[in-house]
Amino acid sequence: MAHTASDTQTSSSRYSHYRVLTFTIIFAAALGVRGCAVLSQPETPIADAADYHQIAASLADGRGYVNTAGQATAWRPPGYPAFLALIYRLTGPSVVAATIVQSFVGALTVLMLMLFGSTVLNHVETVVAGVIAAVYPGFVWLPRLLLSENLSLLLTLTTLWAVAMYLKSRR
After folding, report:
1. In degrees, to the nearest 5, what angle opens at C-alpha 107 toward C-alphas 115 and 92?
2. Cα dihedral angle (154, 20, 161, 84), rounded to 10 degrees?
3. Model-level pTM?
4. Handedness of CA 158, 89, 138, 29 (dihedral sign)
5. Which of 46, 87, 98, 164 has the most CB atoms lying inside 10 A of its own CB?
């Protein structure tokens, strides 16, 4: 029995739907475990996290990029406090709100890992990497902390995926 272009297209479509479903399930699981971690074990910001929280609250309140003494500072890089300040503008200076958003960022990080992985690995290896990242304790607990690593992991993987897609398109 000969395979037609229609058969190949149907098979490709089924694989695409299966891939989307698999990635969606892993994303939902990653979001769920991170959400549970954030809500069941809230963390009070200390050290670096306290600095990020203070600077972000100050930015959101319109007082500028200042430390606890109210003086302008360059002690922390501005990207992550600006990210937190956006959240605080919407919710007030709520650590709980920020960590809930970070749970979503952590789940997006898992999704970006799978998207990047799908450009260099086969489907099974990509899914295994996604499942491991979804439940890896260090990644699950990270959204509880107001640290720049939450956002930088997502941005790094997004950059890697974009570069891989660019290089793939040039072949």
Report:
1. 135
2. -20
3. 0.86
4. negative
5. 98
Q: Which of 86, 111, 116 is nearest to 101 (CA)?
A: 86
Token pair of 111 as six digits: 């999704």
Please give the share of the chain, as a percent, with pLDDT higher than 90.
74
The CA distance from 57 to 139, in Å, is 25
Alpha-carbon distance 88 to 90, whole Å?
Answer: 5
- 59-112 pLDDT per residue, tens: 999 999 988 788 888 888 899 999 999 999 999 999 999 999 999 999 999 999
Measured at the CA of 156, the angle between CA 151 and CA 158, to 5 degrees, comes to 95
Neighbours of 139 (CB within 10 A): 23
